[in-house]
Amino acid sequence: MEDYYKIKAVLKDKKVIFARHQTLTISVGTGIASVTYKYTKPDGAFGSGVVSTTTTLDTFIKMRYDFTYTLKSGYTISKSTSSITIQGNQYVYFEGTSTSTGGGGGGCVSADSKILTSLNGDTKEARSLITGNKIVAYDKEKKSFVQTLVLKRYILTEPTNIYTLSFDDGTELSITPKHKVLTKDGFISVWDDNGQEQISIGTRLIGKDGEKTIVGVRREVTADDTTVYNYRTIMGDAFVANGVVVENESETIVGNVVNNLFNNEGGVKTASLVGGGDISKEHV
Q: I need a surface site. Which of 23, 43, 159, 166 has the fewest CB within 10 A?
């Protein structure tokens, strides 16, 4: 009898005469306004529906689903699925990429994240950190930390997935699933390219002052608009949020010019950066 309950479906003459209950999760990510699905059952019956947030549907083996999506303004599609046939519990993922200069690579940190702003340990909340402020960046090649400046701040406000990672030292970090964090094996995000979780309890993350081990992972799908932040720094490839190294985008060429400018005591004291505002010597 135990083996019987492992049977997913029974077919006769290519028709399903018995099927066990399965689930289909439709993940609605950044930039997606809605996902429309149409299903066809093995007996030919059909139906449809629309979802605007991540939703889990009841379904059965051999049911076919076809999908279309509607993008929010300012986004292009980066991850989608056109159709599937249910073979078990399944997951499909839809995500858009901003067509503007914002986004910081598709990931962000929560507004209350404490961003490291000096090598002495000073921090500032993400919501308060603006273009031209001091920030500590991480250089991937040199594997070292450097004092630099915020070149551009990215702000995303919309319903989104938020993952809160709890650490063994009692601290937490809330990030979007595509924001990469530094592990001993390099930078990885909570979700891989297929929308599958690849960070879990026991994963060890690299911080400014050593490693942090994840002891809890909590996911929240926000129904209301949530504001999250990312930054582009003049030097470096990452910054530090709540003690953890998280990836950003850098402007190394511009950074070399501006850093040289700041180090030249007899030179001009203000540099104007396109889209980045005025950065003056008093910020360093």
A: 43
Integer Cα distance of 114 and 129 in angstroms? 10
Decide: 50 and 31 in contact? Cβ < 8 Å: no
Domains with residue ranges and CATH for the chain: 17-98 (2.60.40), 109-283 (2.170.16.10)
Positive or negative, the CA dihedral 101, 105, 107, 112 is negative
Residue 129: per-residue pLDDT: 93
- pLDDT at residue 169 is higher than 90: yes
User: For all residues of the chain together, what is the average pLDDT?
Assistant: 77
pLDDT in tens, 98-118: 654 333 345 689 999 999 999
| Res 123 pLDDT > 70 | yes
